[in-house]
Amino acid sequence: MTEGELLLKVENVSKKFCKDLKTSLWYGIKDLISGVSSSNKERILRPKEFWAVKDINFELKRGECLGLIGHNGAGKSTLLKILNGLIKPDSGQVTIKGRVGALIELGAGFNPILSGRENIYNNGAILGFTRKEIDDKLEDIIDFAEIREFIDMPVQNYSSGMKVRLGFAVAAQMEPDVLIIDEVLAVGDLGFTLKCFKTIDTILPNTAVVFVSHSMPMVSRICNKIILMENGEPKYVGEDIGEGIDKYYSRFTNNNSNVVFDDNSLTLDSFKIKTESVINGFPVINWGGNLKLDINFTTKIKKETFCIVIIISDKEQRPIAMLQESQFNSIENKSMRVLVDVSDLQLSKGLYNFNLVMKSGMTNEPRLRINNIGEFQVIHEKEVWQPFLLRATYDFIS
Ligand SMILES: Nc1ncnc2c1ncn2[C@@H]1O[C@H](COP(=O)(O)OP(=O)(O)OP(=O)(O)O)[C@@H](O)[C@H]1O
């Protein structure tokens, strides 16, 4: 076993499906009769057919983890099934060296009427282990899955979480060379998910992992390569996880700001993020640079003290930071302009948006709240997913 050894090679893999079953069956019969041998025919779409996976290429070495991301229906699971040999591609080739452990669909690979224990033996045998070898691993698998009480119950009576526990325990404890994991991990509870990530960290140096997920924090946590799929096609393939994730998020961005609350005591005229460059439609701020905002509004009531609150959220709408609040006194029907400056912005690389809240400085009651009022991206010259930096001083005492 050598680190860096090529374990998985995917060359020009494509798979087409048909949108309706009747036509699909008809094409199947036609193909059987005519014997589709020419690769040209395989690359042509007939009416109602579409590419679920199109021209995917990548290589994965021992110790590498590939994150496969994309919107619903992008073709990720189909590609995993091709890798696992469950589906034959229409064109292209998959070369795998060594043993494959896969956790693809809930309960897939298990016989529902057999018990958990019997299924462990079945799966082990499929992976090429002898009965004695499985005997030696059995206890570890049952312990890892934490389902000892239910190990002799038919798998069809297992809960979703129990199926995923058993599936991951078998896939990971059988020392696979290539480990394929679909979103299913999300079904496990937090304790089990954390345990799975710990296991992936432990086995990763000896394994090539392909990991499908919609959770970008999970992808950025474990992957060192990424493929973004869109309608079956690779939209980004590379080692800059941050760039792949940004491209994924930018597909879902909507520039419509969202007025959540408005009591008509002031109107927002404009909210501008002042930057020198714009990439892919987003204002760009260099990591450690200055964030400048230019906000214009008109106050409609007099003798009110307003408090301005600006919150920065990430693309999953989690609040990440809040700017220091500030107060101002209103004058009836008066336009006001406020310039905001935040220096040394050390947010991680990625896309962010602002929520703006104007509240009464006296009662704290909200007057106006607008979500997703402006988006920006933080970039960094390094290709790593830089975490949030906290300034610290170190006192070395000898
Ligand atoms: N057996 C099949 N017959 C016909 N179409 C199929 C079949 N399996 C998948 N598809 C279609 O292929 C496309 C890709 O599906 P796939 O399950 O690979 O997407 P995905 O990226 O895994 O999506 P999700 O994030 O929702 O799991 C979808 O349009 C789906 O409807």
Distinctive features:
single chain, 398 residues, alpha+beta, Rossmann fold, Coagulation Factor XIII, Chain A, domain 1, 2 domains, 6-stranded mixed β-sheet, binds adenosine-5'-triphosphate, ATP-binding, ABC_transporter-like_CS, ATP binding
First-residue to last-residue Cα separation: 43 Å
- Small molecules held by this entry: adenosine-5'-triphosphate
Name the structural class. alpha+beta
User: CATH first level of the largest domain: which class?
Assistant: Alpha Beta
Organism: Neotamlana sargassicola
GO molecular function, one term: ATP binding
Domain ABC transporter: 8-256
Protein name: ABC transporter ATP-binding protein
Q: How would you describe this protein?
A:
The protein has 398 residues and is of the alpha+beta class. The chain has 2 domains: 6-12 and 57-250, Rossmann fold, CATH 3.40.50; 258-379, Coagulation Factor XIII, Chain A, domain 1. The chain has 9 helices and 20 strands. The chain has helices spanning 21-34, 39-42, 76-83, 116-126, 131-145, 160-173, 190-203, 216-222, 241-250, and strands spanning 6-18, 49-61, 65-70, 91-96, 100-103, 178-181, 208-212, 225-230, 233-238, 258-262, 266-274, 277-279, 282-286, 291-299, 305-314, 319-322, 326-329, 334-342, 350-360, 366-379. Strands 10, 12, 13, 15, 16, 17, 19 and 20 form an 8-stranded mixed β-sheet that branches. It has a 6-stranded mixed β-sheet with strand order 5-6-7-3-8-9, sandwiched between helices. The longest helix is centred in the middle third of the chain and has 15 residues, at 131-145. The mean pLDDT is 87. Bound molecules: adenosine-5'-triphosphate. Adenosine-5'-triphosphate binds at residues 17, 52, 70, 72-78. Adenosine-5'-triphosphate is lined by residues 17, 52, 70, 72-78.
